[in-house]
Amino acid sequence: MNSLFNNESVIFDIPDADITYYPAFFNVEISDQLFEELKHGIPWQQDQIRVYGKEYLQPRLTALFGNEGKPYSYSNIIMQPHPWTHLLQKIKYKVESEIDEQFTTVLLNYYRDGKDSNGWHADNEKELGINPIIGSLSFGAERVFQLKHNSINLRKSIVLEHGSLLLMKGTTQHFWKHQIPKTSKPVGDRINLTFRIIK
Asked: Which strand (E) or helix (H) includes residue 95?
């Protein structure tokens, strides 16, 4: 996998954030392979979420893998991790070798089409610590990743490409929210891996 790795990056100059984007972290060949293995090898689930007092099926499929005894909770959902697979460990080690961090957990999201989405939120759960580090890998169809500042009129959109890595750290989660919006455009399916450190 080493020869198929690219560490060229773009650092975004936006206030109150530390965001780096690696557009071709994995090349197309290995990204295609990883996408198929993840799509068919992960035990995907669809949880209920509560929005304004009503329950809905979450508009995407998810799965959690990580170190034993470290559940992850968000939107009134508590997920218990599956043990690391060999494939996910290999991917994790590659990300860790680039950013010099050690992750405990990965939350996977499977967006089946443009109707699947992830609404405005920050990855600021208590168990992620004061300044969370989030490493977000994308495989499959390109989707737009939107950011908006909490207190000033400032937005940023990034097209997350097949095989790309988006790294968010520092005060990003304090000052910014992000989302993957729905789209009416015909788009294929996408798998996103968000690596985290649960304290």
From this structure: helix 86-99
